[in-house]
């Protein structure tokens, strides 16, 4: 497997985990078996992000910034989420919100930087 495939798989796994945890935790107060909604939501999100990264890095038609932004989101989310869980010792639900926020800012910054916005 080449590096393009590895990055696509990694980004897809992160997206699947984020969607799964977010949907499951947000719906748990109102739906008893919210994991059954979180699993398909995570699967769909993971497949969409992996496909976007895989096909975005393989073309020169302008979708490269989107693929790089999704990859930056995945990397920053993993580092922030792991750091908050292990380093700080907070729970998964508490660590989810700031991790998504930091990853969103990083992904947006990479996207805007590669698109040349602000020059």
TrEMBL record:
Record carries keyword RNA-binding: no
Domain of life: Archaea
Domain DUF8147 stretches: 2-113
Record keywords: Membrane, Transmembrane, Transmembrane helix
Residues passing through the membrane, by range: 7-27, 33-55, 67-86, 92-114
Record protein name field: DUF8147 domain-containing protein
Species: Halobellus rarus
